[in-house]
Write a sequence for this structure.
């Protein structure tokens, strides 16, 4: 087996891996992107919501999605919490995009190649999968890559000695490949998808609709027709059967998805989960965390994750910061994002109350209630700094990598804090030193010059967040 040297090896060339490659490519670096083609997400099209537009613009992707004709729909319908469709016209800035992923992903890989990334087609990363070594198995029939990239890899096996290894192999990546484990998850879904040949009056609309079995998602396709997907609970489906679930959900549909064909054509699992590893590998995109498809933000999140991972790669290559600090920062970023998504997803499920007794909804409502209760924990009457705090470095963006600033963390935790809602952590800790009520904290804060421009509401928010993070505790 040949051993090659590289600066960065990225396993997985979906949106996360491809854009990450494009972001870290430099003339003096060897960046290798391993591409094993995938069966896709199991749906014919995916939507990206309008809020992703600034990130698409920042990453230079707007011309690509416009060239591919992936403009978002002009209106959006929601049958959620009420028995009729609520239609909303979308201004051009709100429309986002309808992505047909084969073309979108290929365009991102082309961008990576254009920036100097070596794309290795038909390449599957195998164990061991952590810096410095990555072993790669090549498809026998893989097409020659020489035309597409500068790489000219021969044989059927290859190994890299890489300074940084990134796993961006998507939601189906076995955790064992990266010495990882699932640390948090939401109930898994099965997506059943079919094509509707004629989108009829809904060719200009996306729509979402809750039914007792789960929810429907309608996306018109660029070439005509529409993609219609039913999302159902994986465990419930195991008992009920896919055909029966599709039939009864179709009978319950009131909006565009009434046009769903009699049978679905393909099915796939969507399991929202957060994976962490203590190994010397960065996880990016769905490999790090998958969000519930209800958010329509999987691709946006994969790109944001890759953007953050790119800074981490740059920091590891610069080697000015402690390596473990950078890896821990990547984990903490992904954890924060997954938790925020989980909260908003559960709140959205909680807004549908018509099918309280249906198992799909009972399960999600119970989780939403538990999450809301945990979040609503009031500030204790008196608070004080957690005695388990220790000094820690907090990474803040600097150039295309990070700089370390001083902060605090609870001993043994990955999460270090320099401030809460712009209130410096040490100033906040000083305000509750020795134990203090909220009023006392606010009174002390008024006397601190560094907080002169912060309102009492901001200080209260900061204290609440510090409490949630365990940085201050009940006195
Ligand atoms: C049913 C369903 C519907 C969805 N709908 C939407 C939607 O409407 N909007 C939205 O934004 N998101 C949606 N998503 C989520 C979206 O598809 C993902 O979030 C997105 O694809 C993540 O990108 P990624 O690059 O992290 O992973 P992927 O796109 O999965 O790419 C990973 C790549 O790594 C490759 N790979 C795997 N193993 C290896 C290996 N060992 N070596 C090398 N390569 C490997 C895979 O073949 C694949 O090409 C949906 C997901 C599902 C399941």
């Amino acid at each position: 087996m040949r051993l090659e040297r590289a600066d960065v090896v990225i396993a997985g060339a979906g949106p996360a891996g491809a854009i990450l490659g494009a972001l870290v490519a430099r003339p003096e670096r060897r960046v290798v992107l391993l591409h094993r083609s995938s069966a896709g997400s199991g749906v014919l099209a995916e939507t990206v919501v309008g809020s992703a537009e600034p990130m698409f613009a920042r990453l230079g992707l707007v011309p690509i999605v416009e060239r591919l004709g992936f403009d978002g729909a002009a209106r959006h319908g929601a049958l959620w919490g009420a028995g009729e469709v609520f239609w909303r016209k979308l201004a051009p800035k709100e429309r986002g995009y309808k992505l047909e992923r084969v073309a979108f992903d290929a365009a991102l890989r082309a961008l990576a190649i254009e920036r100097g990334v070596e794309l290795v087609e038909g390449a599957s990363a195998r164990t061991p999968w952590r810096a410095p070594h990555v072993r790669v198995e090549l498809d026998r029939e893989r097409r020659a890559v020489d035309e597409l990239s500068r790489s000219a890899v021969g044989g059927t096996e290859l190994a890299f000695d890489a300074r940084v290894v990134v796993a961006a192999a998507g939601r189906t990546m076995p955790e064992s490949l990266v010495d990882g484990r699932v640390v948090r998850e939401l109930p898994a879904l099965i997506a059943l998808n079919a094509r509707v040949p004629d989108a009829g009056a809904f060719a200009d609309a996306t729509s979402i609709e809750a039914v007792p079995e789960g929810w429907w998602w309608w996306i018109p396709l660029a070439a005509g027709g529409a993609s219609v997907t039913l999302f159902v609970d994986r465990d419930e489906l195991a008992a009920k059967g896919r055909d029966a679930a599709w039939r009864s959900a179709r009978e319950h549909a009131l909006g565009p998805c009434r046009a769903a064909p009699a049978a679905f054509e393909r099915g796939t699992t969507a399991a929202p989960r957060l994976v962490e590893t203590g190994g010397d590998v960065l996880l990016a995109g769905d490999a790090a965390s998958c969000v519930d498809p209800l958010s329509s933000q999987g691709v946006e999140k994969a790109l944001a994750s890759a953007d953050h991972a790119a800074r981490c790669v740059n920091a590891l290559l610069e080697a000015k910061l402690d390596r473990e600090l950078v890896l821990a920062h990547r984990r903490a970023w992904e954890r924060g994002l997954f938790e925020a998504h989980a909260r908003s997803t559960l709140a959205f499920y909680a807004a549908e109350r018509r099918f309280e007794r249906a198992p799909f909804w009972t399960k999600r409502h119970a989780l939403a209630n538990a999450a809301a209760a945990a979040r609503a924990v009031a500030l204790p009457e008196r608070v004080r700094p957690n005695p388990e705090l220790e000094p820690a470095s907090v990474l803040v963006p600097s150039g295309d990598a990070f700089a370390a600033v001083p902060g605090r963390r609870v001993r043994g935790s990955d999460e270090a804090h320099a401030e809460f809602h712009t209130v410096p952590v040490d100033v906040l800790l000083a305000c509750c030193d020795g134990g203090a009520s909220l009023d006392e904290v606010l009174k002390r804060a008024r006397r601190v010059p560094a907080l002169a421009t912060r309102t009492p509401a901001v200080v209260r928010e900061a204290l609440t967040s510090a409490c949630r993070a365990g940085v201050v505790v009940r006195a």
Q: What stands out?
A: The chain has twelve helices and 27 strands.
